[in-house]
Amino acid sequence: MKLEKCFKHAFNMVLHSKLRSWLTITGIVIGVAAVIAIVSIGDGMQQTLNAQLNALGGDIVTITAGAGRGGGMYGMRGGGGGGGGGGALATTKPVVLANVDLQALKAIPDIALIDTNIRESVNTSYLGKIGKVSVTGVDQKVWSQVTTTTIQTGRSLGPADQNVVVIGGNLASSYFSQPVGINKMISINGSAFRVVGILNDQSNSIYMPIQMAYQVMPDKTNGIYDTFVIKVRNQDQLVQDISEIQNKLIIERHVTQNTMDFSVSSNLQMQQTRAATMNSMSTFLLAIAAVSLIVGSIGIANTMFTSVLEKTKEIGIMKAIGARNPDILLIFLFNAGFIGLVGGIIGVILGTMLSGFMPALMGGLPMGRGGTLVTLNSIMMALSVSVIVGILAGLIPAYQASKLKPVDALRYE
């Protein structure tokens, strides 16, 4: 029997049992729609996460004095701990980052820029309102190229700047009794500084040239730093660069891996952690959706067994006039695959529509904040799975139908 004729027989079987076929297809539709909607949530979260992490700078490495004191992006934003006196070693000598470490790092060719930071909470006043504000001294020659925070108003620090500062968005808008604008003067530990830029964030931080920061932070020593913020030349080689930085500082500081008195962190570590979490979440959601598909496949199997019973005599007639076992097998497999395909197509359409409502349906849950994204890959995957599930569910009934003896089939009542 020709392949085309087998397909025609399978299609007619669906048409002659419309109600049963549509009920079976409904099970696949629900399963595929669930897969599309749930996968779209995972893809949307992944897209949002990637965008956020890319904005944080995947080529940035932060070095902090003291073991286990990761700075990472938090250090760049002024939220990390300052000071170099910590550390895991039982020693009376403060653990610090110094110029010798800086010179050693500058010898690494894969490092593009190094921003040296010191940080301290300092009394700051504006129009009579005084408060403790985190002030970070930065290398103004490279800071604008290393920081991931953008300027909302004004400009960044320049190489020739002295008594100027860039302040956080919240500090400018609501920290003091009146908003602080561009070119306004604020007092930091008794010294006047002009505001030249306001950051596009919600921090209360202040950034100023590092040499001016030494003057308003009496506890800091010139040439001693809290953190190094490094920008590498090639983000794809970040792991190798981190390893090279660690080895360089281990040699320079005369420590070992076990007694390392500094920490190196990067956004890559956060990316890996978040990616692992996302993968676990996606796997969990897919497992839930797979349950719906399993239920749908049971429906297909049940329909196929019923079809075999109904078509037993017809199978006997086809075999009597020359149909072979593979022909009967193909007819029922085509029937099962056709049900899976139609269910998959309708399920993709329904799932795509449903994914648009998922953020609203999930309310304020974190999973719904990233939006949804239906990709071509997820559609192709859903269609393929629906067809495969249909064929697998119909495999045993089709095999039983193909093995029927013509005489027994013709006698079946």
Describe, in plain words, how this protein is organized in 3D.
It contains 15 helices and twelve strands. By secondary structure, it is an alpha+beta fold. The strands form two sheets. It has a six-stranded mixed β-barrel. A two-stranded antiparallel ribbon has the order 2-10. Helix 1 (3-16) crosses helix 11. It is elongated and about 105 Å long. Residues 69-91 have low confidence and may be disordered.
Distance between the termini: 26 Å
E-strand count = 12
Q: What low-confidence regions span 5 or more consecutive residues with pLDDT below 50? A: 69-91
Summing up helix and strand content along with how strands pair, one would put the structural category as: alpha+beta
Computed CA radius of gyration, to the nearest angstrom = 34 Å
Helix percentage range: 40-55%
Largest sheet entry: 6 strands, mixed, barrel
Residue fraction in strands:
15-25%
Q: What is the overall shape?
A: elongated
Strand order, biggest sheet? 3-4-9-6-8-7
Secondary-structure blueprint of this entry?
Elements: H1 3-16, H2 18-56, E1 60-65, H3 72-76, E2 97-98, H4 99-106, E3 111-126, E4 129-138, H5 143-146, E5 151-154, E6 164-167, H6 169-175, E7 185-188, E8 191-199, E9 206-209, H7 210-216, E10 224-225, E11 227-232, H8 238-253, E12 262-266, H9 267-310, H10 312-320, H11 325-361, H12 366-369, H13 376-393, H14 395-402, H15 406-411
